[in-house]
Amino acid sequence: MKRFSGILSAAGLALGLALSGAPAMAQQPTAVPLKEGSPAAIAAAKEILAMKNANAMYANAIPNLVQQTKDQLLQSNLNYQKDLGEVAGIVAQKLAGREKEIGDGMAKIYANEFTEQELKDLVTFYKSPLGAKLLANEPRAIQFSMSYMNQWAQNFAEVINGEFRAEMRKRGKQI
């Protein structure tokens, strides 16, 4: 399960990298109020997200955020290390389950981006043999794609470096 979660993290990174290169997506989208999807659209979106095991991406959101907050507070309150450690456990327990809000928000986003019928068609697709194969193999394909992109970028960076050096030599400057 941890391996799959890691793959999903890589998939999220791949998606982020892919989108960051698109000119239209260069800026962070501003928060746009979402139209309220129908209950059937929300249900279909939640089913799709469950089939994609999307909750693995945010399953540790609460403990991670509590830890980050504790670490931040510790920087200026070292003498409260023991107390902050104890309070972190209390806060994490008190807020446990709130990460489900992320899933609900994601479902609303899907319901905002796709029609109810499109979502139902996607559910049908993911339940088909090809859809099931996509769900099973896509994380691995994304992982290999990320690996390929990183290797390509390393190799291409050497080409760019060579071009810089050649252009600088033309100017009589060795770097």
Quaternary structure classification: single chain
* End-to-end distance: 48 Å
Mean pLDDT: 87
Give the proportion of residues in helices: over 70%
Defining traits:
175 residues, mainly alpha, flat, single chain, disordered N terminus
Short overview:
With 175 residues, the protein is mainly α.
Report what the structure shows.
With 175 residues, the protein is mostly helical. The chain contains eight helices and no strands. The longest helix is centred in the last third of the chain and has 42 residues. The N terminus is likely disordered.
What is the strand and helix layout of this fold?
Elements lengths: L1 H19 L18 H13 L3 H4 L2 H16 L4 H15 L4 H14 L2 H12 L1 H42 L5
Helix pairs in contact: 1-8, 2-6, 2-7, 4-5, 7-8
